[in-house]
Amino acid sequence: MISEMDIKANLRKIAIDELKGYLTCGRAENSQNPFTNDEILLFVTKNTQKIDDCVNEIYNAYSKDDTLDELVNPENEWIREYVFRKKYFGTLTNKNNNKTNDDDSDNDSDDDSDDE
User: pTM to 2 decimals?
Assistant: First the structure.
């Protein structure tokens, strides 16, 4: 069995890869300047806690459902669904939004957690 730390490290890598993809290609597709590697590093650094919170939510949801084995080699789209929820980075995908930080006051309507 793969350890919790290894699963979370893999989830974090996937989450960051998804963010990088949006901050580069996604922004270019939306007629915005793609982030440079330095800007991506700064973004990830500024949003470390939010990324970790997202990873923990994913891990806990799969742990609760006793399906952690699905996170050994998860589909990136599963992780993307969590990453781009409003409470994490959902506002990044708004074409008219040039912000690089998500507003924590935004709540996903299908999220019933009280940890914000």
Answer: 0.77
